[in-house]
Write a structure and sequence with these properties.
The protein is globular. The protein is an alpha+beta fold. Strands 1, 2, 3, 4, 5, 6, 7, 8 and 9 form a 9-stranded antiparallel sheet that branches. The model has no long low-confidence stretch (mean pLDDT 91). Helix 5 crosses helix 6. The relative contact order is 0.18. It contains 6 helices and 9 strands; from the N terminus they run H-H-E-E-E-E-H-E-E-H-H-H-E-E-E. 27% of the residues lie in helices and 32% in strands.
């Protein structure tokens, strides 16, 4: 076997174990926490908006398919309140198909600069059409047209096809309002459990978990790091 033949079987990869830092985040004690996890999230989110350079509302949503295989992707949180956390997507996308099969999802916010994470477990449900329309009308026109163009998650032959379809839709809706696609809308993740993770030195992180009780109250427990 030649030297060239040997080199073709070399393993590829990197040892990244040396990429580490000792987080020096804030102290997080029980007395620091709001009894309402949504109010606590709002406090952390406002801080993230002040300190995260780009997309503090970016959140990883994890779903499972009909074979119980997990899948994760990043979406943008658009608003939240005591009823849940809302994002928008194509209702024919892979994530939507997963949610239709199993509404149990996980949301994960990671704000590296603050050494903070928030994990939310809950059930995803479609928001009412009127609520979706209100948000859709607030979007930039290009984003409205884009919602009509992409058959999200499906295989396409080229980028040029997308650009062509975008121009077709742009011409179709020229000088008129872009209507809401019937296959596009929002999901609200209704939380059942919310964990706040604060990075600390020596991997001794502070973690507190809120769990919704049957009476509607939230139980708060400290978790080991």
């Amino acid at each position: 076997m030649s030297k060239d033949d040997n080199s073709s079987h070399e393993h590829r990869g990197m040892n990244v174990s040396g990429l580490r830092r000792s987080a020096t985040g804030f102290v997080l004690d029980r007395e620091d926490l709001n009894d309402d996890p949504v109010a606590q999230f709002e406090d952390w989110f406002r801080y993230a908006c002040e300190t995260v350079a780009m997309d503090p509302n970016a959140v990883t949503i994890s779903t499972v398919d009909k074979h119980n295989r997990p899948a994760s992707r990043t979406v943008l949180l658009k608003y939240f309140d005591e009823t849940g956390f809302v994002f928008f997507t194509n209702y024919e996308s892979t994530k939507a198909q997963h949610i239709d099969h199993n509404p149990n999802v996980s949301l994960l916010f990671f704000w590296s600069d603050a050494a903070r994470q928030v994990k939310i477990l809950g059930k995803a449900e479609r928001v009412p059409a009127a609520e979706t329309l209100k948000y859709f009308l607030s979007r930039p026109r290009g984003s409205q047209i884009g919602a009509w163009v992409s058959t999200q998650s499906s295989v396409i032959s080229s980028r040029a096809l997308l650009e062509m379809k975008f121009q077709e839709m742009k011409d179709k809706f020229s000088n008129k309002e872009v209507p809401l696609p019937s296959f596009w809308g929002g999901y609200r993740v209704v939380p059942e459990q919310i964990e706040f993770w604060q990075g600390r030195r020596n991997r001794l992180h502070d973690r507190f978990q809120y769990t919704k009780q049957e009476n509607g109250n939230w139980e708060i427990e400290r978790l080991a790091p």
